[in-house]
Design goal:
This protein has 427 residues and is of the alpha/beta class. It has helices at 16-25, 44-51, 67-74, 85-92, 99-106, 119-123, 125-136, 162-173, 179-182, 215-226, 254-264, 309-320, 325-328, 351-362, 405-423; strands at residues 2-7, 29-34, 77-83, 111-115, 140-141, 145-148, 154-158, 190-195, 200-201, 207-208, 230-235, 247-250, 270-273, 280-282, 303-305, 336-343, 366-371, 382-388, 399-404. It binds flavin mononucleotide (FMN).
Amino acid sequence: MRIVLGVGGGIAAYKSASLLRLFTEAGHNVSVIPTEASTKFVGAATWEALSGNRVSGSVFDEVEKVNHVRLGHEADLIVVAPATADLLARAASGQANDLLTNTLLMARGPVLFAPAMHTEMWSHPATRANVDTLRSRGVLVMEPGVGRLTGTDSGAGRLPDPKDIFAAAMAAAAPPQDQAALSGPLHGKTVTVTAGGTREPLDPVRFLGNRSSGKQGAALARAALDAGAQVRFIAAHMDIPAPEGVELTRVETALELREAVHAAAPGSDVLIMAAAVADFRPDTHSDTKIKKRDDGTDPVITLVRNPDILAEAVQRRTAAAGSTAAETGHKPLPALIVGFAAETGDGDADVLDYGRQKLKRKGCDLLVLNRVGSSLVFGQDSTEVTLLSPRDSADTVPLTFTGSKTEVARRIIARVAQELEAALPVR
Ligand SMILES: Cc1cc2nc3c(=O)[nH]c(=O)nc-3n(C[C@H](O)[C@H](O)[C@H](O)COP(=O)(O)O)c2cc1C
């Protein structure tokens, strides 16, 4: 999605850097338009570096590109954060005296303002009238947060949390009734997706974790939503927010994730296990912080194996096969179970061999194989995956997709829809 992020001249301008990050990490292309006043708080270099796009607040830069018309026309969504009292006034009265206000007048998609200002400015009759005018035109104006303001005072006027602005922006951009999703290949189906990396506690402050960012799982959930599915999203630790529109369950450890998967699987048509689940956990964890000992000895951490959740899901389905849901009184288990493998090759075998061995061991219906290394896959925006199916013969050349995690997720979901169609009649 193309997003214009307008930044007004308030102290909270720096918080928009986190908002920008949330947008770019979710795969959106963001053009930042700062007002002149805002550049006294945060400079254009920050916005250019974080967005990867040229930044200007003036209609007279890059005139050949007609930015004052183009940016508003092309934007799928415009978010103004922080929206100053001045910007609300200029937008309400239809002024066009800088690039941002020109862009607002050219907007074709939703517009969201996230105000930040002192309580007196927010409650002033002029600002109230401007907010009413904007809302009456369909513009979304968030309520500011309540709390500590710039000085020693506090009250209504804080910029809403960037995560809340992000969520409101995504909700604003989502069509009320997505026609494409209604006719999508997974319409009427329920897909459970696990995402992120589990954390196994050692004590109240330390844990054993992994580098999973949750981006691939989130992209899969979004692709499944776009294909019309209801999505149950089980999120271990993620660097990005969970996608809008999913039924969200947050978990921390592998055992919690296991419980959530076994609760979500009945009634799901597809189970996609994209989370990076710890193979091992410390055998005990301390309720108090583990301290350095005076006698000079150091603690030893003993690891125990975590259950293999993917293999368990397959076993449960096998055990239930043969008896109908009506007989057992349980909802049917997923017709399609998709595993993920993050593998590195070594002297004994290459990545593909390890992937095939894993597919056989787990017994799932599709295995998405990632080649991992220090700079590959984890936390990155692009990826390369190979799809392995138990139906492939030894000389089948497996399908490999390369691209952004969003694009790769779309292709995996398209394949999932095909496999599901093939699997359903034999349920
Ligand atoms: C330190 C400082 C903090 C400010 N914070 C805010 C603010 O949070 N909200 C606001 O509406 N104006 C704030 N202002 C006033 C705006 O910067 C001023 O109204 C400016 O003209 C806004 O321009 P813009 O709307 O084009 O960004 C602040 C000014 C200063 C000097």
